[in-house]
Amino acid sequence: MGAVWLSRILFGLSALIWTAPVFGQAATDGALEIGECGASTRLCVGVRSDARPFSYKSSPPGEASSDAVRGPLRRAGYTGYMVRICDAVLVEMVLDGDPLVDLKFGDIGFYDIDKAAQATDAAANDGASPSGRFADLGKRFDILCDPATITNDRRDDFSVSPPLFLTGISYITRKGAPQLGRICADRKRSLIGLVGGTTAATEGIRALLDAHELPELHRPMIDFLTPSPKPGDVKLDSCGFNPADPGFKPRIQTYKTHTAAAKAFCDGEFYYLVGDLEIITANVRMVPGCDYENGTSTYTNDRYAVFGRTRPAMAGESPVDTMARRLLVARFFQIMSQKVVFNPSILDKAFGDTFLGVSPSRKLEIFFWSVRGERH
């Protein structure tokens, strides 16, 4: 047994020594480049291009914003807290040299969930939402590397990593914006903006109600959570406005992407931006000259994780090859679990590289401590 482990260690060191120069070379070296998932992709990773700061498309591709290892996803132009964690695991899988896995960088591919959701109007309404993402997990890709909240049904249906981040629903307002007056006085401006299909659109609004936050907006919030009327029926909103009227602005406006919601917020199209605190603030900071207030409290405790499910057998694939792909997914989660609980944890590295110069909140620091113990 000792000889086996010694050989593995020597193999890993030799691979690392051989690979180190490659990591430092320009992106023109294709040794670590990966492409979009295809029929021959053994491990397909689902990523986002619009879920800053956790999983998003960076610009320009290949630019290193810190000293983080530039793994295959980073070289494909993606970055963020969750992507950094997934990249570290993928690099470890390749360098591990496990003959049962035998993974090479060319075996890895990416699936851009937001890009696919924009391909058709029908998909754009749901493709990047939780229901759309999880419907495609295990069909179009094997690993969901995205800020996805742990829920009971997701724990039952998918492989799930240890909790990787702790966040919560909050809201922000534009600094210096006019105060909200009578909520029904302005038909041309919405009250709340959020991204549809996210936890903010359901659990978040409900949490604000339960916390008795923004009491003047409770009636519009309740209307938002009330099921839509049957086709042909007319339901006036809490202000008595008819949604069918020209120029109607819903009291709570949904957007397809975080970028669109942040831009509308900064353009003054609504008063309150609601969503996961780190996501809404990161996207607003990307809009020049847009300053915000509030965002000091969260009203939910949402744990992010990476989820997985192996795609079914591909055309012409042998049962042995299908089982080998299942082992890849299992090995991915095994390595991730190890790197999370080790001290120092991969979580500390990912946080430092993503949130440059920012200290974690007290709540988040306690979460990190509970995962990896006292930091060394």
TrEMBL record:
Keyword Signal listed: yes
Name this protein carries in UniProt: Extracellular solute-binding protein, family 3
Signal sequence bounds: 1-24
UniProt entry keywords in alphabetical sequence: Signal
Top-rank taxon: Bacteria
